[in-house]
TrEMBL record:
Pfam family membership, one: SufE
Top-level taxonomy: Bacteria, Pseudomonadati, Pseudomonadota, Alphaproteobacteria, Sphingomonadales
Assigned protein family: Belongs to the SufE family.
InterPro entries: Fe-S_metab-assoc_dom
Top-level lineage group: Bacteria
Domain Fe-S metabolism associated positions: 12-128
Protein name, UniProt field: Cysteine desulfuration protein SufE
Length: 135
């Protein structure tokens, strides 16, 4: 979580425009998601922008997510969400309080409701995925 804490620290000192830029930069830094994985099955429902999340299982059983969006700021939000769960064991992901981890970013008050309405759906999909792997 140290990376998330570093991002949060930087975010706190930025004005609104620079916060948007930071989110866009986070989204650009996401590992590329192959177009072949952007299917109806990986589409997150309830987002105003198209958002895809695809889980992969690492050799040691930890989950690694690929994600993308057709909207730059939304892609940055996904990058923030993934910072809280990426490359962790499924049980840790299922138990993670992603909302609490993201609370300091105050996204609901920083961004339009259109941009934030899908966040709970992204988190729910990630938790459901982790739950399938916890057996």
């Amino acid at each position: 979580m140290t990376i998330l804490a570093d991002i949060q620290e930087e975010y706190q000192f930025l004005d609104a425009d620079d916060r948007y830029r930071l989110l866009i930069d986070l989204g650009r830094a996401l590992e590329p998601m192959p177009d072949a994985l952007k299917t109806d099955a990986t589409l997150v429902r309830g987002c105003s922008a198209a958002v895809w999340v695809y889980p992969t299982v690492l050799d040691d059983g930890r989950l690694h997510f690929l994600a993308d969006s057709n909207a730059a700021i939304t892609k940055g939000i996904i990058a923030l969400v993934l910072q809280t769960v990426q490359d962790q064991p499924p049980a840790a992901i299922a138990a993670a309080d992603v909302e609490e981890a993201l609370a300091p970013f105050d996204l609901r008050n920083q961004l339009s409701s259109n941009r934030t309405q899908g966040i709970p759906n992204m988190i729910a999909l990630i938790r459901q995925t982790a739950g399938r792997y916890t057996g």
